[in-house]
Amino acid sequence: MTETRTLDEFRDKFRVEELKVLENHCWTWSVRPGQPTLGAGVLSLNRHAGKFSEVTEQELKDLAELVRAIEGTIKTAFNHQIMNYLMLMMVDHHVHYHVIPRYEGIRTFAGREWVDNGWPALPMIADAQHADDPELLHHIQEKLKPGIV
Length: 149
Fold this sequence. Notes:
Layout: H1 7-13, E1 20-23, E2 27-31, E3 41-45, H2 57-78, E4 82-86, E5 96-102, E6 107-109, E7 112-114, H3 136-144
Antiparallel strand pairs: 1-2, 2-3, 3-5, 4-5, 6-7
């Protein structure tokens, strides 16, 4: 996997603008290009920061606001059991979270079955369910956009 070190590289890799669901002044929530579970996303800081300790107090307040919107929206859209937020930054050197909704049981969306292959343990973040359908990410994006709470 290619390392990302700049904000532009990160945003291109995760298709942040194309797959954006919601943003506030400091953060953007977008659909994750690889879907380990239905509705997985990326929550990324809108300016470059290589360490979490560089995040400001205002950015943390805006983070809390967006997290509430994410959880309410995904609950309404797909009825997740719990949400995992993974801040790994081993490859992508930019402050961001992988937002992984967790599901006990199968979900059906866009004519496809979705399974949380890691339930009830760690998420299988490398899974990319239904990657053969290039329009599926946009269907997920559209399902989430009108549900903003």
